Amino acid sequence: MLRFIHFGNFLALVKRKLHSLLFKVGLDGQQITRFIYFIILMLYLVYVIHVLSCFWILLGFLWNPDGTSWFTTAGLPPTSYKGKESYFEKFESIAPIYVRAIYFTVTTLTTVGYGDIKGITNYELLFQMGLEFIGIAFFSLLMSSINNILVQESKVQDIIDEKID
């Protein structure tokens, strides 16, 4: 929950800084509002991808009764936490795992789904199906938001054209 609060504070800071920067550039209020709305939407997208990727890593690490999970389909060695050795101690960095999790999340959210990385356990398969529905809903929202920005721009341009005529 603290991460969400920190992210909200971060977004408020970004809004203030972008507003002052774009105002100095000379954009009007409506253009600034639309641009900031689009940037904040993109930041939400990156944040959602990060959170879902971290949850995907958690699923692969925790719920694998026979030692196999999505890590094996991603070309990573199977997990093992028998004894004191944890899975993450086998790697010098977490980067290969995180990059593959981001890759899986983006390809699943965008409904491309190459199939090279996929869930093996029941929990992973359920998460993968949920992720596909989240992707459809999120990108529908994204496209409608972009459409609304463009429609508002054309309405403003129509009003200006009428006044000029």
The ordered H/E elements are: HHHHH
Q: Please give the share of residues in helix.
A: over 70%
Note the main sheet.
none
Oligomer: single chain
Q: What is the mean predicted local confidence, pLDDT?
A: 80
Question: Structural class of the secondary elements?
Answer: mainly alpha
CATH class (first level) name = Mainly Alpha
Q: Which geometry do the CA atoms define?
A: elongated
Q: Mind telling me the C-alpha Rg?
A: 21 Å
- Would you tell me which CATH topology applies? Helix Hairpins
Count of helical stretches: 5
**Low-confidence runs of at least 5 consecutive residues:** none
Q: What is the straight-line distance between the termini? A: 54 Å
Tally of individual domains:
1
- The tally of beta strands, per DSSP, is 0
CATH architecture: Orthogonal Bundle
Strand share of the residues? under 5%
Highlighted features:
165 residues, mainly alpha, Helix Hairpins, 73% helix
What this model shows, in words?
With 165 residues, this protein is mainly alpha-helical. The protein has a single domain (49-164), classed as Helix Hairpins (Orthogonal Bundle), CATH 1.10.287. The chain has helices at residues 2-25, 29-62, 70-73, 95-109, 122-164. Helix 1 (2-25) packs antiparallel against helix 2, helix 2 crosses helix 4 and helix 2 packs antiparallel against helix 5 (122-164). The model has no long low-confidence stretch (mean pLDDT 80).
Note the topology.
Layout: H1 2-25, H2 29-62, H3 70-73, H4 95-109, H5 122-164
